[in-house]
Amino acid sequence: MSAPIAIPGAASRLVGASVSPSATTTIHDRFGSFRRQENLDVARSKVLHPVENEDLRLLILENISQDAVSTFRTQGYTVDHFTRAMSEDELVEKIGAYHAIGIRSKTKITARVLKAATKLLVIGCFCIGTNQVDLQSAAQAGIPVFNSPFSNSRSVAELVMSELVILSRQLFERAYELRTGIWNKQSKGCWEVRGKTLGIVGYGHIGSQLSVLAESFGMRVLFHDVINLMPLGSARQVDSLATLLAESDFVTLHVPELPETINMISKQELAGMKKGAYLINNARGKVVDIPALVDALKSGQLAGAAIDVFPSEPASNGAPFDDQLNAWASTLRNIPNVILSPHIGGSTEEAQRMIGEEVSQALSRYLGYGSTLGAVNFPEVDLRPITAEQGDHVRVCHVHKNQPGVLRAVNEAFSPYNVEKQYSDSKGDIAYLMADIAQVSPRDINQLRAVISANPANILTRLLA
């Protein structure tokens, strides 16, 4: 059992007072004073640490933003940073030494990896998607998963706009020919995008931004989504995917990988598109049936395609994209007017910086304060900070099975102390409670944790002080 930590004594009480604004005080002055007060409140927040006194180690993979790595190190975490992804076997061997892991889309966090992750507290996906993580197994192990659902939306939308123009002008083919020494100036089969119809499948953060950009190019925008959404600009929602495919000159996909979206664009859907239309996929590799797409391109049903994501992708830069990875790879590479890119939709300096900031902050908030706001597989719970003046306060972060009697048992354990604030929520079979309790002596901390952890419903209990 760890030795108890010393908790500083409580500081003297502070008294806050307010005065009525003078006649010369403007509303801007008042808002400014509120902002300054907020900054003072943040400055007074107490920095919490695990009572185990163990240094927290983070494993950061796939060339995640150096700004995020620097932020973690500045906060005192030990960070091991690798530019590549790791295989399942590598992770099983290494992950037992780490309390947190940061990945992008290539590293797979499977149930086998999670079983080996005996110290793991949190997972950060420095990207939009989380299908590379076994979310249910992570939740059952008491591990929240955070991502960045919005930060690269603009980057993806801009890439789609560039692909619209490149496809419609056959720019990829003409540029390649000239680089090989062939001059081939032509206009046949080349079009302006102005006046054409763009069909957006999935009208979320990316789809809606793309809608605005496309209209600024003079395009007509249709979209299809599983829920009714208010369109931006003059965009119009259609009643079915089939309607969108039949009316669109360009179709672009922006949906997550779910059982119902796998191969959502297959032989039947491709046959339902306009002859000579174009398909763009910057969503997930499995939402398009690639062999069916190859047939549609070869037959002339489609005039071109842009694919940025694939069912199987190389684990590192420089690795081959060949038929051993995907059986159709060499065939697809040799079809004219097909843009293939290595999953770069969100790969801009701006997007990676914002993703690094958003996810690193989420991981730091959970490790240091217990907050699960923004977790994709976990109840979202947060409490206001313990202040620096509250020296004898301890924060209890208790992940447990969602079943009757747990809160009663926990509150019985809290009964000798003053509970300053407490909040609990559940998501499926998992529940999460946060509580700040006062008047806890150093000798009581380990005993309190042992009592709470002894409950059969306990999954993970952390105390921060």
Q: Number of helical runs?
A: 15
What is the radius of gyration computed over CA atoms, rounded to a whole number of angstroms?
A: 27 Å
Instruction: Kindly report the oligomeric state of this protein.
Output: single chain
Structural class: alpha/beta
Approximate shape: elongated
Helix content: 25-40%
Which consecutive residue ranges, at least 5 long each, have pLDDT under 50?
Answer: 1-43
What does this structure look like?
It is a single chain. The chain has 465 residues and is α/β, with parallel strands linked by helices. The strands form three sheets. A seven-stranded parallel beta sheet has the order 8-7-6-9-10-11-12, with helices on both faces. The protein has a five-stranded parallel beta sheet with strand order 2-1-3-4-5. The two termini are 17 Å apart. It is 33% helix and 18% strand. The N terminus is likely disordered. The relative contact order is 0.13. It is elongated, with a radius of gyration of 27 Å. The protein contains 15 helices and 16 strands.
Keywords:
465 residues, alpha/beta, seven-stranded parallel sheet, five-stranded parallel sheet, 15 helices, 16 strands, disordered N terminus
Q: What is the structure about, briefly put?
A:
The chain has 465 residues and is α/β, with parallel strands linked by helices. The protein is built from 15 helices and 16 strands. The two termini are 17 Å apart.
